[in-house]
Design goal:
- The protein is 30% helix and 17% strand.
- With 447 residues, the chain is an alpha/beta fold.
- The protein folds into 2 domains: 3-356, Glycosidases (TIM Barrel); 373-446, Golgi alpha-mannosidase II (Immunoglobulin-like).
- Strands 5-4-3-2-1-9-8 form a 7-stranded parallel β-sheet.
- Strand 2, helix 7 and strand 3 form a beta-alpha-beta unit.
- Bound molecules: alpha-D-glucopyranose.
């Protein structure tokens, strides 16, 4: 009896850590309803992130205004020269589609405050640059025409808005604390909070159904900003009222609630395992870059290879997550060659292997991961995919697989792979020559 009470107590403590605040009436949703809302996203697994803005002109990081502490006056030169004359989002959409991406998330506004649409609430927008036209609508139309879903990124941070108070990240912050406090007296976050609501209302009611919203980001603390500064609860309420089905990231500093976010967003690293909280596996999407920065960076030479990127996609799905892979278009409005080459490489692989990605997730524990492999698993089709990172000589051992499989084939050409059993293990008989694909996959039809 005592033991049961103790267990009840522990589980109560754990679940209250998971959801410390009461759920507001407008946010009530059952676990099943949430799963249903996330169903397409969990199935699709792979999206394109696009970071685009006037920081593409300096071409040395989307945080350049911060990194180089550039004043509004000197940053203005990028605004005054922004003219992406080669912008044709149909090309981008085609590349994303070919690479097997199923949704796109576009930076409508990044931290520098520049808006890619014709917002009624600011002059700091693309329609006032030499380009003079809205960038968002043509992109939404082009990607939809290719069958991709649409997501928006919206920066909570805004280094241009005159009422966004100076904090430790602000490029134009006075260094002296007293000076900063005095300058902030003239700034009113109420006005900025209203601005965010107005803008979110705009972008979430002008382009039809929006499927994902990426709010970015919080850095709570005395000299930072968190949910109180943003009025995150008010934002989420507004967003859900405008787009009830939308899937929202976890960067509005509402992690202590159950309702203020839908998925977690580890970035620029690979989680060791499926992220979880108190034993509950969380929906997750990792966003990753080709070369390190998000915006176009001409002189960055740390580009990942096609092999690394395909392996990354596979690893993410093998841990039950989604990959949002970023492109930073140039200020002419194109994907540069290095990006196109990566996307083409991924496209080639996806053309033959996408069924080892879509609808797939982490394999159940009973299927041990063979050496040098990742496993993905389709629970509906009851198939297991063995992604072979290093092609072994003739034999691939599947530990304790005896009695678990009924057929095996290479996925790239559906050629049979014969197998035998040995001490409870299955031994696949591989051809000597490694199939000529980035990562060969063996499809196992399960018993
Ligand atoms: C970080 C960076 C930002 C980038 C984002 C993508 O929050 O501030 O530049 O947009 O990550 O997730």
């Amino acid at each position: 009896m005592k033991k049961t009470l103790l267990l009840l107590f522990i589980s109560a403590v754990c679940s209250s850590a998971y959801s410390q605040t009461p759920v507001p009436s407008w946010a009530k949703e059952t676990k099943e309803q949430k799963e249903k809302r996330l169903e397409w996203w969990t199935n699709d697994r792979f999206g394109m992130f696009i970071h685009w803005g006037i920081y593409a002109l300096p071409a040395r990081h989307e945080w350049i205004k911060h990194n180089e502490r550039i004043s509004n006056e000197s940053y203005q030169r990028y605004f005054d020269n922004f003219n992406p004359d080669l912008y044709n989002p149909k090309d981008w959409a085609k590349k994303a589609k070919d690479a097997g991406m199923k949704y796109v998330v576009l930076t409508t506004k990044h931290h520098d405050g520049f808006c890619l649409w014709d917002s009624k609430f600011t002059d700091y927008k693309v329609t006032n640059t030499p380009y003079g036209k809205d960038l968002v609508k043509p992109l939404v139309d082009a990607f939809r025409a290719e069958g991709l879903r649409i997501g928006f990124y919206y920066s909570l941070i805004d280094w241009h808005h005159p009422h966004f108070t100076y904090d430790d990240l602000h490029p134009n912050r006075p260094n002296d604390a007293a000076e900063r406090a005095a300058a902030n007296k003239k700034r009113d976050m109420n006005i900025y909070r209203k601005y965010m609501k107005d803008q979110l209302t705009e972008i979430l009611s002008s382009y039809g159904q929006i499927d994902e919203l990426f709010l970015d980001f919080s850095y709570p603390g005395e000299t930072g900003k968190g949910h109180k500064d943003w009025d995150s609860e008010g934002l989420i309420k507004l967003i859900r009222s405008l787009q009830p089905q939308i899937i929202i990231d976890d960067r509005a500093d509402l992690k202590q609630t159950q309702w203020g976010w839908d998925y977690v967003t580890p970035e620029q690293n690979m989680p060791k395992e499926w992220p979880s909280e108190n034993g509950v596996k969380l929906p997750w999407e990792t966003c990753q870059t080709f070369s390190g920065s998000w915006g176009y960076y001409r002189d960055e030479y740390s580009w990942k290879s096609v092999h690394q990127l395909v392996a990354m996609l596979v690893e993410v799905v093998s841990k039950g997550g989604n990959l949002l892979l970023n492109v930073g278009p140039t200020a002419r409005g194109t994907f540069d060659d290095r990006a196109s080459e990566r996307l083409d490489g991924i496209a080639q692989w996806m053309k033959l292997h996408s069924r080892a990605i879509y609808g797939c997730t982490q394999a159940p524990k009973e299927y041990k991961v063979p050496n040098n492999c990742f496993l993905t698993y389709n629970p509906t089709a009851k198939r297991l995919y063995v992604h072979v990172l290093e092609w072994p000589f003739l034999s691939l051992y599947l530990p304790e697989y005896e009695g678990k499989i009924k057929y095996a084939q290479l996925l790239n050409d559906a050629s049979e792979i014969r197998y035998s059993t040995q001490d409870g293990n299955v031994v696949l008989s591989l051809p000597v020559a490694r199939p000529n694909v980035e990562i060969p996959v063996i499809e196992l039809v399960l018993e």
